[in-house]
User: Fold these one by one.
Assistant:
Number 1:
Amino acid sequence: MIGEDPEEPMSGMERSVVVSGGGTGIGRAIAARFARQGDRVTILGRRAEVLRAAADEIGGKYPVRTVAVDLSEAEDIDSRMPELPERVDVLVNNAGGRGTPAGEGGLKEVAERWRHDFDTNVLPAVLLTEALLPRLVSPGGRVVTISSVAALRGNGAYGAMKAALQAWNHTLAGQLGSVGATANVVVPGYVAGTEFFGGPATEEELARRRAQTLVGRVGKPEDVAAAVAFLAGPDAGYITGEFLNVNGGALLGR
Ligand SMILES: NC(=O)c1ccc[n+]([C@@H]2O[C@H](COP(=O)([O-])OP(=O)(O)OC[C@H]3O[C@@H](n4cnc5c(N)ncnc54)[C@H](OP(=O)(O)O)[C@@H]3O)[C@@H](O)[C@H]2O)c1
């Protein structure tokens, strides 16, 4: 039929959506957005009780499934494969964490900090994607990975790890293109209201972050969820290998 594209996954068509780090912050907002539009959502994270609480609160047409797993550990992922969906329409690689601040110590400590940031921000995306690729629908599958504005402006090992994800996405997009699937990256600026900074921001910090934007407000998890929903949706089938900045104009056009 004219206007229909069999390669397009349809929003609201009960897609199977996997969101890593879906128990808190940005990942939880992403999971809630997909659940609201009628998709079957599975959320992953290390803390089972946090996942269960999020799943209960998110609700949706179908119960949100939870899988407690450390995504930096290959063996843990292997052992959880039976709990993960047999079919994946959308994979959102959101799990990650704040970098370890530079501190005291010698080269041994420097190596430990960089390895920790690698384990926290690169391995979860790479390992989960490798694990679920055989289950990604083709054509029409979508992989969306969450990077950070830090990849564009520094922030030590954390920024370097997010930049690594963006380089990795080029390869992934090439791989998925041949099976009619896409891989894109959402690059958020500062987002308030998550566990990322370990507690609520002070008024001074919020004012400082607000002043860095052009739109006069800080980011919300829902801002990032909207960008992910677009890239995972039917209107984005011809977009792949791209980075979508979501930063209120705090850093322009890179
Ligand atoms: N907030 C910001 O300003 C900001 C800006 C740019 C980019 N980001 C990125 O956005 C993503 C979400 O961050 P957020 O701000 O929403 O922070 P958050 O609330 O701390 O969320 C991070 C999530 O990742 C999960 N996670 C971390 N390591 C994991 C592992 N090894 N295995 C499984 N799950 C793991 C955590 O759950 P468990 O601890 O239970 O495992 C948590 O649910 C991260 O990739 C972050 O780098 C955040």
Number 2:
Amino acid sequence: MKDQYTQRISCPHCGHHIHVALDASDGDQDYYEDCAACCNPIHLNMHIDYAHNKLELHVDSDDEQIF
Ligand SMILES: [Zn+2]
């Protein structure tokens, strides 16, 4: 299993496709990335499934954070 992944996701706010770099060597991660197109925060939740050597990425918009 390699440690570095680049995943293409689509922004939950505007649908813009962005690439995110994932580092699986640090274990599960939960962080925010700003969309390059609409500047809204995208909530990324990365879960590493060691049993199946899989990396799961959940993307959501955190709708309660409205500025
Ligand atoms: Zn966007």
Number 3:
Amino acid sequence: MSSSLKPLRWGILATGGIAETFAKDLLRDPSTRGVSDVNHVVQAAASSTSADRAKAFLKEVGAPSSAKAYGSYKELVSDPDVDIIYVATPHSHHYQNTRLCLEAGKNVLLEKSFTTNAEQAKVLVDLARQKGLFLMEAQWTRYFPLAINIRKLAAEGTLGDIKRMYADNAFGDDVEKKFDVKHRMVNPDLAGGALLDLGIYSILWIFQLLYHIQPKDKRVKPKVSSIITPEPRTGADECTTIIMQFATGAHGIATTGLRVGSDPDGKHSAGPSIKIQGTKGELQIFPPAYRPTQYRIIPNVAQNSTLEYKEVTEDIPGHGMFWEADECYRCIRDGKKESDTIPLEETLVMMEVMDEVRKQNGLVYPEAIETTDYPRDL
Ligand SMILES: NC(=O)c1ccc[n+]([C@@H]2O[C@H](COP(=O)([O-])OP(=O)(O)OC[C@H]3O[C@@H](n4cnc5c(N)ncnc54)[C@H](OP(=O)(O)O)[C@@H]3O)[C@@H](O)[C@H]2O)c1
């Protein structure tokens, strides 16, 4: 596939599971998703362990043979031919790795959760602004046509006044069997636990409707009340429930967990995992919250709603991570330093909410991954 458009030359920092999925999506022909104004190139990848690992990764994702393989992140950020770096390390490492990229003058797309705490997030945002670099949290779900459409219909008042939302993103795993105590999902040294890994999706869905589409004066940090149950072996959060009250008065109930799931049989038998409840009706989204393909609208008959019952299913031509990459392309092409769909200010408020949940429940990570000191070897 060749394109006459100026390429956006990506560097992939880390060679784990999501880096692979993202790089494969990046290499998909944009026309398969009806897009003709982007040109993504995988320029290089770096592994913290060896150049051979990076080489194997590039082969696995089908990158062109010209792509460079680096055995350290420092080499990647020094490559003058890389325009933007996708950071896909565990969240514990996001601050150090992203700071490395920004200090080297690189634009960054940073996996969720942005950092381990809001203080680190603020340092990165300030640094990107000071250096005139593009920075965005990889909240890929927001760029799905389905999510864009739901924000639009909610903003147009289709559901009436939104009074309440429930959002769940939980996996229902056999925790001890699936995750060794060193695994990033449960290991506090890697900022493990449900909140930062899965709960961010429950929070982002609620924020899209009760914060993002609201008038500016209503976009303030919500009141937060929360409970956490720790994972018995490591103390990371295993089950977390957050109640938020937004400036509109609307309530948002965000839940997440490792041991109980949003979709226990994988067949949607448990129903939707997200409910947007307005005075005219309710919009329900089926799991998984991070990669939704199906929703329905149910009228509120008690309030003589003129809404009609409707079910919508949308196909995704791939995993769906290319839409956020397309946003990066367009922002950088147009000289924008952040995305309107996930403004850095909103990322900071979501990080503050998660900080508050942790504070209310005494959940702290090791100092090495909470600090804003840089550089630190992790
Ligand atoms: N958007 C999504 O749908 C989605 C899905 C899953 C995960 N994520 C996010 O993506 C990030 C990575 O998740 P993942 O599932 O890809 O994790 P993973 O499979 O464990 O991969 C993480 C990679 O980070 C690098 N790394 C550097 N230092 C590390 C350390 N001390 N321990 C472990 N890995 C280290 C490793 O690659 P090299 O050292 O070879 O570079 C490793 O392969 C997390 O922030 C997670 O929240 C997003």
Number 4:
Amino acid sequence: MTDTLITGAAARPDAEIIEDTIVAPCAPWSAVLKKGQTLRLIDLEGQQAIDFLCFGTDPHQNQVERYHMPNTIKVPKHIFLEKGTVLYSQFARPMMTITDDSCGGHDTIFGCCSFAVDQVRYGKQNAECCQRNFEREMEKHGLGPEHVVANANFFMNVPIGSDGHVEITDSQSRAGDFVDLRAEMDVIAVLSNCPQELNAAAGGGPSPIRAIIFQ
Ligand SMILES: [Zn+2]
């Protein structure tokens, strides 16, 4: 990782920094954001998928409130995540808003990689998987494996053909591309820096990312 990547234009926002972390290749990460704080995710070397979920810190109607993929697609009638997209919960309440995005076209439908699905689609298993990363990281917040739901995939490119064909293809993200997510409620943000080496999700191989929380 070069200095350019760390100090590039997309690096540190001109704001009060709450946390600034380099997430190692293949590793999970999480943090609690207060309403109004923003999480910046930077693809330091390019073409690195970040599997992402968020949860309300407080239950709503006695349930864990969590990111809900169909509501996030239904409300804007748009299947990709980009600047202006709101991430909705199962209660159709705004959880986070994408306030800036230098890449665009992030995936909503493919969910995360798991040992089980890798075995079925490739006949072998990757060394690590996002499912297990999510489970490990969410356990720290008292969230069990049943809460690993269909997640968002930043910097992952899944074009949808008119014939219905879908497949992970090379990501459009370049070194230093970033996405900003503003918390619309107090949230637990959880991510897996995707370890996948059996498809294009992590480009030429898993690489580090950077997570900055600011307000
Ligand atoms: Zn993955």
